[in-house]
């Protein structure tokens, strides 16, 4: 698709060379600004593997804009985008967003969410034009000052196995309020994802907690932390996560996690463990 001298293309699974182009674009946009584009490179968890989730804009051979869709749920897609500073106000962002929404409509994804760093002035302007309602923030938090003090207690941790998947799905469905089938699919996909390892925590014979650790070149990310609601309020979540952190290699990678601003209990837990807010990504209905 071409518009006003720009060429627009989309992919469900781009080549390594295209991914490098996107990474270079993101680096050029984010570099030195302290602003996070929130462009997602981890689409293995997308519910529909055939759906295009990378949307690119070229001026000749130069990649000048990109949007991605992260859609681990069948009914919701998160759209992030970035455009080179010298190509803004040319309609590129609007065209990328429209293209992403068109694909989500085609795949019957009813809920479309635009995400934007709260510090981005140009992003705020874009949001005012294209979004309707601010929903919440997602804080990326980083562990500062070293690991929290290890704890002794009743929670035993281990690497998750395929046999744990049904119980892991039950815990996540109960903790997050998601449909069981959706949680089961998410856990199954997470278990086979590259550079992602699942952990479970048990108290006696009861499996009570779940999380995943994703490792990249720059960081170790804690994902999908969930404690069975029947066992919450007893300190098991703090003990579980502390032991998970101590089980990771001492390789110098920074440890990060994301938390929804509406999840006050989890936010307080992460602060007590020594995590600090690194970025504030706002979520908007479009």
Descriptive report:
With 286 residues, the protein is α+β, with helices and mostly antiparallel strands. The protein folds into two domains: 2-131, Aminopeptidase (3-Layer(aba) Sandwich); 143-280, Gcn5-related N-acetyltransferase (GNAT) (Aminopeptidase). 30% of the residues lie in helices and 36% in strands. It is built from seven helices and 13 strands. It has helices at 16-30, 92-106, 121-130, 165-176, 180-192, 236-246, 264-272; strands at 2-3, 6-11, 54-59, 62-73, 76-83, 111-117, 133-143, 155-159, 196-203, 206-215, 219-227, 254-260, 275-285. The chain has a 13-stranded mixed β-sheet with strand order 1-2-3-4-5-6-13-7-12-11-10-9-8, sandwiched between helices. Helix 4 (165-176) packs across helix 5 (180-192). It is globular, with a radius of gyration of 20 Å. The relative contact order is 0.15.
Measured distance between first and last alpha carbons: 23 Å
Rg, please? 20 Å
Into which percent range does the helicity of residues fall?
25-40%
Low-confidence stretches: none
Q: Using the 3D structure, state the CATH architecture of the largest domain.
A: 3-Layer(aba) Sandwich
CATH class wording of the largest domain: Alpha Beta
Total domains: 2
For CATH, the homologous superfamily of the largest domain is named as Gcn5-related N-acetyltransferase (GNAT)
Contiguous helical run count:
7
Q: How would you spell out the order of helices and strands? A: EEHEEEHEHEEHHEEEHEHE
- CATH topology category name of the largest domain: Aminopeptidase
Q: What number is the mean pLDDT?
A: 93
* Class per helix and strand makeup: alpha+beta
What overall geometry do the principal axes of the alpha carbons give?
A: globular
How much of the residues is beta strand, in percent? 35-45%
- The number of E-state strands comes to 13
Q: Strands of the largest sheet, in order across it? A: 1-2-3-4-5-6-13-7-12-11-10-9-8
Summarize the main sheet.
13 strands, mixed
